[in-house]
Amino acid sequence: MEDKFQSARVTSFYRKDGNIEFQDILIEYKLNSSDVTFETVEAYIGKPNEISFNAQTNQISGFFQQKEDLFQTNSIVFSYSDYSKKFKVFLTVKKEGKVISYRELTTSPTNPPTIPPNSITLPSISYESKRSVIGGTEYQVIRVRFQAGSDLSAFKQLNAYIGRPSIISLAADNFNVINYISASFYDTSS
Length: 190
Description:
- This protein is mostly beta strands.
- It has strands at residues 5-17, 20-31, 40-46, 52-54, 59-61, 65-68, 75-80, 88-95, 98-106, 125-134, 137-146, 157-162, 169-170, 177-178, 182-187.
- A hairpin with a 2-residue loop joins strand 1 (5-17) and strand 2.
- The chain is elongated.
């Protein structure tokens, strides 16, 4: 079988969406410039010990997902909900429905990025609550105050979130706040 690929490579990327960690698998390729008589470029992905290509039957078996490069972008992307798995990919060139060339690639799973611990300590905070009537509607105004003389120069922006005690919480990434009612921002530039 003639090799129609000038080059082919696979790269894995780590992605987190909420509590789910993904592995995005990018397959990039270049075809030999003289080859313009093919129909499709397709990629098949599967577990290394299950996916295989049978040259006699011209069939790929044991794959769990197949994608075609419909828009001829010279790339195909797969996503899998386990970033730690290793996969085998068959990248194929087809003509009249038959594989006329293929490349076998193996993914290398990525490690999640290391998130540094939250080592910043805020100065002492006090709260002041007042009731205010504006246009016939009563509001509760809550002020967050730092201790007099506190050095806030290390902070570019400070955010304050308010919400019901049993509902507001820190997101799984230990960085974002979720389920809050309102947020206020202190910016050193103002």
